[in-house]
Amino acid sequence: MPPVAPMLAKSVKTMPTSGDYRYEPKWDGFRCIVFRDGDEVELGSRNERPMTRYFPEIVAAARKHLPPRCVVDGEIVIATGDRLDFDALLLRIHPAASRVALLAEQTPASFVAFDLLALGDDDLTELPFEQRRAALEQALADAGPPVHLTATTADRRLAERWFHTFEGAGLDGVVAKPADVAYLPDQRAMLKIKHERTADVVLAGFRWHKTSTPETPLLGSMLLGLYDAGGDLQHVGVAASFTAARRAELVEELAPLREGAKDTHPWAGWGRAEGESGPERMPGAQSRWNAGKDLSWELLRPERVLEVRYEHMEGRRFRHTAHFLRWRPDREPTSCTYAQLEEPVRYDLAEVLR
């Protein structure tokens, strides 16, 4: 019965060189455990929250393509053209049922299955992954789109090729699963190997930390920018993960850049924007995942450059939080453009699903 916490993966830099592993593409979507009992279908999220109302087409697909009684772990994804589109997924987390229904027709989601937790009256979580995978293949033998069975291989060299080629279809790495591992909810019993790159970006502002007070001001995250071909500074994401001591130091260190920032900053108008939504939402817009989260931010004159580590781009933004590496006093902010970013070779998503 829901909720069930999904089994997790630990980040590593390279694929394992020893041990018996099964490798799978790492899908860039919403982790989802599907519970089906006849016509009853529930979609559980990574945080054990229900997502059923947001994806009515996945509920219908589960009734059509999954076994009558089962619990299946997988990923909800949306494809635009030949690539995964995470921004389209974000739009689905909407309070209006009419909006959800419209988007379900315009940008329908798919479900990629990669583990089987229960089938009929049988709890399969104590079985080794290799046996669960075999049972999943049999259970989905007659399934069709929008339900897909993820690819898998025991060949490390093939997995390395997937790592480099599938990124062009919007996937963000490879997952390595021990062949003999049981299903361990909320435990990092798998390995994930993700793409990592660096870029020089402009520091354009910051958000206050959730524990910040007037007496003890603390920086929460840095707002990052890159210049586009037209010379406009675009918001590309945030950098975070600082120690408490460093958060306090940064507030003092960056204080001079706050002076006069509102007069000349290219994002000054964004601070007044309300209700922004969609892939191009501005800094300070409300989070779709937590409507009560404070995303207010402070402008900084865009005069400092820093180097960050990032995984990959989603459109014009970093897909995940970037990591601060070092200041770059030798770089001019206007030299930080999109041209420096590595562009993965395009790859047809249909080939991955096939």
Describe what you observe in this structure.
- The structure is a single chain.
- The chain is of the alpha+beta class and 354 residues long.
- 20% of the residues lie in helices and 33% in strands.
- The protein has two domains: 29-152, 2-Layer Sandwich (D-amino Acid Aminotransferase, Chain A, domain 1), CATH 3.30.470.30; 197-340, Beta Barrel (OB fold (Dihydrolipoamide Acetyltransferase, E2P)).
- The radius of gyration is 22 Å and the shape is elongated.
- The two termini are 31 Å apart.
Query: Kindly state the mean pLDDT as a whole number?
Result: 90
- Give the % helix: 10-25%
Low-confidence stretches: 271-292
Kindly give the count of domains: 2
Report the major sheet. 6 strands, mixed
| CATH uppermost class of the largest domain | Mainly Beta
Structural class, from secondary structure content? alpha+beta
Strand/helix succession: EEEEHEEEHHEEHEHEEEEEHHEEEEH
Number of helices: 8
Question: Based on the structure, what is the oligomeric state of the protein chains?
Answer: single chain
Q: What would you call the shape? A: elongated
Superfamily (CATH H level) name of the largest domain: Nucleic acid-binding proteins
Proportion of β residues? 25-35%
Distance between the termini: 31 Å
> Architecture of the largest domain, CATH level 2?
Beta Barrel
The Cα radius of gyration reads 22 Å
CATH fold call of the largest domain: OB fold (Dihydrolipoamide Acetyltransferase, E2P)
